[in-house]
Amino acid sequence: MNNLTFDFNNLVRENVRSLTPYSSARDEYVSDGSKMIFLDANENPFDNGVNRYPDPQQRSLKAVLVQQKEVLLNQILLGNGSDEVLDLLFRAFCEPKVDNIITLPPTYGMYKVLANINNVEERQVFLDHTFEPDVSKILESTDGNTKIIFLCSPNNPTGNSFSEDRIVTILENFKGLVVIDEAYIDFSDKESWIKRLDEFPNLIITQTLSKAYGLAGIRLGLCYASKEIIEILNRIKPPYNVNELTQKRALTRVLNNDQVTKEVSDILLERNLLAAVLKDIPFVLKVYPSDANFILVKVDNADLRYRELLEKGIVIRNRGTQPLCENTLRFTIGTKEENKVLIETLKKL
Ligand SMILES: *Cc1c(COP(=O)(O)O)cnc(C)c1O
Predict the structure, then answer these.
(1) Alpha carbon nearest to ligand 1 atom 13, residue
(2) Probe ligand 1: pick from 211, 215, 242, 246, max atoms within 8 Å of CB?
(3) Residue 87 backbone phi and psi in degrees, to 5
(4) For the chain, which terminus, N or C, has the lower number of CB atoms within 10 Å?
């Protein structure tokens, strides 16, 4: 371990360090599968499939993830979307009005929103002109109260993955936590940072079932980190934060990996097709390379093109107000049929 100065306990908020977590009925008596009469949680006893509280530790789902991701059970935390996981990180580690976090715009908007909600200062260090982290500026911007640096790789909305060397330099030289948001990792041929968890005690990886897994509606976010970090997050999470329907549906889907892989490869084919077509559209000035299920393009007039597409019934995202993203549009990759309509429409604008 090269991160000699990493002092985990000092990162945790004082009130969280001394907290006794709420102990729910399902925490107190853990079923071993034997037939018991459950009279402990004031539930309605008539079985309708969801009359019982869900497993607060989502054991069935985690058991599959342990196998697939090659991590230990105590290195996983699940949440109500990655948005809940990110919020838990703020609440565990960032003292309101005292601590600060670093984001690298243009990036996912939720880090800033969560910082504001939690009354934590957000320090912005823009990506460089190649959309890579500016490592020396990032490290210069940290101080003793900087708790978390948020890296989104592949990054939303730019679509690129950050260079491994730069991420390692940040991990090795920053004494706080480094979150790598891998919401789009399943679309990338780069390896997940989960493989390197044991190397970096300050590394936290978040993933989601909302994108490649096609389950945005059930809200399931995943967090991988050292067992010390996961233990802290477990202390403050709402006991039943992942509901029964979500746990069941997620389990079915992660067990059906082949279908996910097939859908991802279809999406990637369509992405490459769309990227090629976009390059020949006269008002498109630049098509940025993508490691994700969307493409960022620079156009002559983003507001105009956005409105024109909207009039034709196609909704995309105008990213023109983001730093370094003047006149850019973000296209999510749809089905083959949707892509065809999009391409025909673009050609006629
Ligand atoms: C879509 C997205 C998420 C997903 O959030 P959920 O709450 O899990 O749906 C997380 N991070 C980034 C960068 C995203 O674009």
Answers:
(1) 108
(2) 211
(3) -65, -40
(4) N
Q: Mark whether 231 and 297 lie in a shared domain.
A: no
Ligand 1 centroid to 152 CA: how many Å?
Answer: 10
Tokens of 230: 């996961």
Q: Given the structure tokens 């390059």, which residue do they identify?
A: 279
The answer to whether residue 299 is domain-embedded is yes
The single-letter code of the amino acid at 110 is: M
* End-of-domain residue from the set 255, 281, 314: 255
CA–centroid distance, residue 236 to ligand 1 (Å): 21
Is residue 113 classed exposed, middle or buried when 0-12, 13-18 and 19+ CB atoms within 10 A define those classes?
middle
Say if residue 208 is in the same domain as residue 281: no
Q: Is 210 in the pocket of ligand 1 (CB under 6 A)?
A: yes
Q: Give tens-digit pLDDT for 45-94.
A: 999 999 999 999 999 999 999 999 999 999 999 999 999 999 999 999 99
Dist. CA 217 → ligand 1 center (Å): 12
Q: Are residues 236 and 300 in the same domain?
A: no
